[in-house]
């Protein structure tokens, strides 16, 4: 399977990460049974790479060179390539790995110099898990209506954070993360604060999930957690630039990567059939070819969507299209793969069963299909997505 | 022809699936149509309640009955669900066993569609309750038009499956039709589970029920290429 228009640099990146993925594939099923197994594998090259991915060079990140280049993972297109390969190898290992990922993108967008020094500095010291807590028990898709509060400091009393979050990746084992909370009603009242764990009043507990078990999604409760003034992200920015705006931009930047993860799962299903089935009948070959074409098509869209947000952070509309498409493809591909292995395929092939379970989670991460479709429509309706030249801003298309 | 006894059996199993969960419904169906037997699919897979797993000494392998002791038995897992866990097993029957009983197989395979229909209908109800309890702006999620459309799509599948099943007795629908009904239910479940948001992704909840429902179809249906 090839992706056209990736330059030699990016092709080398893809080749190297694909090679690293071999370890992930070997460990996938064991990690699915015990998500804490990742602690024993911090020395794998892919885990090491992910543990600092997204940290800009000026903060001291020195990732290992690949074909003479260093990839800092600060670009959505680089991340899309990395995510597809590692997800295709094993998505559980990918989402279990420590690193700045979601929180890191927000930090890059929002934090002041001192906050960046502190956050990136800690990430470079040793592999740490981070979390990005937006979703609440009663508010998922409608995240703007979140109700966690951070009561600002008064006199000698520190700011206090209280509320609950749910389904937050890796929160139960993370050492630091960001929590979205409001200081006042309305969209401008939303702030992101940095929180360390353990902290008095902060509690996170892992939830058992059907798939993506490596993500250790967690329920968080916070009761009067003290937040120092320097932990308010974007305190140097206007309120309109640090609350809702910030998580929308963060999601725009991350969405192509999420789509790439889904794509990787679809590809893993396709490759599983090719590896484990011999002598395909004609109709089976046709079905498999069709699947390969769908995977290639979705990849083109993912890469263009990534190039678009790299060019302009506000351009997350293509990424919504890519995410819906890839999440559905992951679902279809994994389900279809089962039909190549006769009765009780999933009971006989634990890897297939895991792929099906993992694929289901892709619908929800970073916004459901409905929310992505509404966003895409909005882009079209308002003209922000160019009707005549939708890839205009994506340099890849040139 | 449909006998009253059969209609009663299906409706009991259908109701158990809706109100009690997977394991009680499987028990209900197995006790009714395969008494004393441990139901296995064409490749020897079983997805059964603890009660059936513990209380059967003979294995029913997609139509033929053999002593359980003659089979190679492998535990493949256990899944916790509302209404009790289900056990996943493989029973490899020795070759050359005779005595295929088509009537039993016809009753089991038809009952299984009713069972999965019940599970899927209950998923729809659960999703509606969940969505009615969540707000966006001044309204509930259930009142969003995209959501209503998905619920209606699920309902249409349920109505069609039920229309095809209604008044039908064992053996009246060929396996290809039964497989198609299973595919429709899988499709409906897939869309309905999405409506539960991430709550549908938690182990032990309604999303897990939908997964096991799909596994039931996969374990007990004959693949298309065999038909
Ligand atoms: C594996 C995994 C990892 C996750 N990681 C994180 C994380 O790290 N941090 C974090 O904060 N969250 C995380 N989440 C949560 C995720 O962001 C939410 O699940 C998602 O935003 C949906 O919210 P919800 O689950 O509450 O669904 P709901 O908002 O309750 O949605 C239920 C259904 O209603 C539909 N719906 C909702 N509103 C509308 C509307 N206006 N119009 C039409 N349809 C609508 C949805 O599409 C969905 O089908 C994760 C979830 C998963 C499964």
Tell me what the structure shows.
The complex is a heterodimer of chains A (398) and B (227). Helices cover 48% and strands 12% of the residues of chain A. Chain A is of the alpha+beta class and 398 residues long. Chain B is 53% helix and 16% strand. Chain B has two domains: 4-92, no CATH class; 102-225, Up-down Bundle (Butyryl-CoA Dehydrogenase, subunit A, domain 3). In chain B, the strands form three sheets. Chain B has a three-stranded mixed beta sheet with strand order 1-3-4, with no helix packed on it. A three-stranded antiparallel beta sheet of chain B has the order 2-6-5. Chain B has a two-stranded antiparallel sheet with strand order 7-8. The mean pLDDT of chain B is 95. With 227 residues, chain B is an alpha+beta fold. Flavin-adenine dinucleotide sits between chains A (102, 132-135, 140-141, 167-169, 212, 215, 217, 361, 364-365, 367-368, 370-371) and B (134, 136, 141, 144, 146-147, 194-195, 197-198, 201).
Which key phrases capture this entry?
heterodimer, A: alpha+beta, Butyryl-Coa Dehydrogenase, subunit A, domain 1, Butyryl-CoA Dehydrogenase, subunit A, domain 2, Butyryl-CoA Dehydrogenase, subunit A, domain 3, three-stranded mixed beta sheet, 7 strands, 12% strand, B: 227 residues, alpha+beta, 7 helices, 8 strands, 53% helix, 16% strand, binds flavin-adenine dinucleotide
What is the strand and helix layout of this fold?
The complex is a heterodimer of chains A (398) and B (227).
Chain A: H1 8-33, H2 45-50, H3 76-96, H4 101-110, H5 113-125, E1 130-133, E2 149-151, E3 159-168, E4 176-182, E5 190-196, E6 202-206, E7 218-227, H6 244-276, H7 282-311, H8 317-338, H9 345-348, H10 350-361, H11 369-381
Parallel strand pairs in A: 1-4
Antiparallel strand pairs in A: 2-3, 3-7, 4-5, 6-7
Chain B: H1 4-19, H2 22-33, E1 37-40, E2 45-49, H3 50-54, E3 58-61, E4 64-67, E5 72-79, E6 86-92, H4 102-132, E7 135-136, E8 139-140, H5 145-165, H6 175-194, H7 206-220
Parallel strand pairs in B: 1-3
Antiparallel strand pairs in B: 2-6, 3-4, 5-6, 7-8
Helix pairs in contact in B: 1-2, 1-4, 2-4, 4-5, 4-6, 4-7, 5-6, 6-7
Bound molecules: flavin-adenine dinucleotide.
Flavin-adenine dinucleotide sits between chains A (102, 132-135, 140-141, 167-169, 212, 215, 217, 361, 364-365, 367-368, 370-371) and B (134, 136, 141, 144, 146-147, 194-195, 197-198, 201).
């Amino acid at each position: 399977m090839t992706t056209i228009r990736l330059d030699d640099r990016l092709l080398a990146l893809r080749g190297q990460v694909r090679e690293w993925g071999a370890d992930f594939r070997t460990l996938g099923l064991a990690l699915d049974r015990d998500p804490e197994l990742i602690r024993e594998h911090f020395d794998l090259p892919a885990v090491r790479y992910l543990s600092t991915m997204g940290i800009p060079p000026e903060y001291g990140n020195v990732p290992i060179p690949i074909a003479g280049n260093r990839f800092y993972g600060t670009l959505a297109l680089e991340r899309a390539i990395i995510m597809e390969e590692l997800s295709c190898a094993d998505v559980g290992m990918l989402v279990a790995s420590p690193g700045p990922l979601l929180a890191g993108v927000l930090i890059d967008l929002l934090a002041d110099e001192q906050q960046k020094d502190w956050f990136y500095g800690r990430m470079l010291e040793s592999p740490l898990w981070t979390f990005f807590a937006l979703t609440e028990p009663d508010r998922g898709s409608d995240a703007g209506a979140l109700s966690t509060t951070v009561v600002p400091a008064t006199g000698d009393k520190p700011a206090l954070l209280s509320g609950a979050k749910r389904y937050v990746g890796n929160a139960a084992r993370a050492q630091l993360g960001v929590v979205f909370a409001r200081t006042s009603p309305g969209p401008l009242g939303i702030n992101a604060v940095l929180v360390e764990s353990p902290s008095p009043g902060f509690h996170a507990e892992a939830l058992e999930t059907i798939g993506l078990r490596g993500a250790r999604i967690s329920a968080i409760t916070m009761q009067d957690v003290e937040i120092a003034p320097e932990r308010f992200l974007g305190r140097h920015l206007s309120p309109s630039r640090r609350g809702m705006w910030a998580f929308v931009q963060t999601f725009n930047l991350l969405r192509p990567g999420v789509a790439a993860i889904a794509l990787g799962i679809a590809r893993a299903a396709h490759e599983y059939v090719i590896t484990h089935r011999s002598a395909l009948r004609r109709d089976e070959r046709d079905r498999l070819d069709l699947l390969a074409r769908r995977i290639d098509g979705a990849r083109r869209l993912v890469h263009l969507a990534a190039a678009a947000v790299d060019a302009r952070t506000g351009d997350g509309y293509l990424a919504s299209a890519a995410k819906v498409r890839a999440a559905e493809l992951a679902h279809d591909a994994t389900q279809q793969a089962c039909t190549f292995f006769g009765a009780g395929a999933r009971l006989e092939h634990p890897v297939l069963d895991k792929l099906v379970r993992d694929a289901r989670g892709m619908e929800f991460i970073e916004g459901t299909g409905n929310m992505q479709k509404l966003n895409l429509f909005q882009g079209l309706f308002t003209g922000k997505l160019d009707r005549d030249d939708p890839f205009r801003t994506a340099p890849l298309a040139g | 022809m449909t006998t009253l006894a059969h209609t009663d059996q299906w409706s009991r199993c259908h109701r158990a699936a809706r109100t009690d969960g997977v394991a009680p419904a499987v028990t209900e169906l197995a006790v009714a149509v395969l008494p004393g037997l441990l139901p296995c699919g064409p490749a020897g897979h079983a997805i059964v309640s603890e009660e059936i797993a513990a209380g059967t000494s003979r294995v029913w392998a997609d139509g033929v009955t053999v002593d359980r002791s003659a089979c190679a038995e492998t535990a493949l897992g256990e899944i916790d669900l509302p209404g009790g866990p289900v056990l996943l097993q493989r029973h490899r029957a020795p070759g050359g066993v005779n005595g295929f009983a088509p009537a039993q197989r016809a009753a089991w395979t038809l009952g299984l569609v009713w069972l999965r229909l019940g599970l899927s209908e209950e998923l729809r109800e659960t999703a509606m309750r969940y969505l009615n309890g969540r707000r966006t702006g001044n309204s509930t999620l259930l009142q969003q038009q995209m959501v209503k459309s998905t619920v209606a799509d699920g309902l249409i599948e349920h109505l069609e499956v039920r229309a095809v099943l209604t008044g039908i007795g064992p053996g009246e629908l060929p396996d290809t039709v039964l497989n198609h009904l299973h595919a429709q239910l899988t499709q409906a479940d897939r869309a309905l589970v999405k409506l539960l948001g991430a709550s549908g992704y938690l182990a032990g909840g309604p999303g897990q029920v939908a997964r096991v429902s799909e596994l039931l179809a996969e374990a007990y249906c004959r693949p298309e290429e065999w038909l």
